[in-house]
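Predicting structure from sequence has reshaped protein science. With that in mind, we have picked out one protein's residues alongside their backbone shape tokens:
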Amino acid sequence: MQMTNDIGKRLFAKAGELGVPVGFMCMKGLDLHISEIQELCTEFPSTVVFLDHLSFCKPPTDDEESFAFSELLKLSKFPQVWLRCLLDLH
């Protein structure tokens, strides 16, 4: 199921109206969801978005990781997008 289907878009719009942030946990990789996240952020700029755990991106060591990390950085064009990161300092 796509997040950009009719139901997903209605939920995303309503979250923006109510001031409720939407969180994404891209555990299987940002590259699987980036186009939908970009579409939703473009269409609904008043909906705040949190990407948990830096969208499971890490400093790139290969082309696939470079693409995902680059796409993550491109989300900075959306002022409503926030990254959340938990650090284990042990």
In short: Residues 6-18 form the longest helix (13 residues). Residues 21-27+48-79+86-90 form one domain. The radius of gyration is 13 Å.
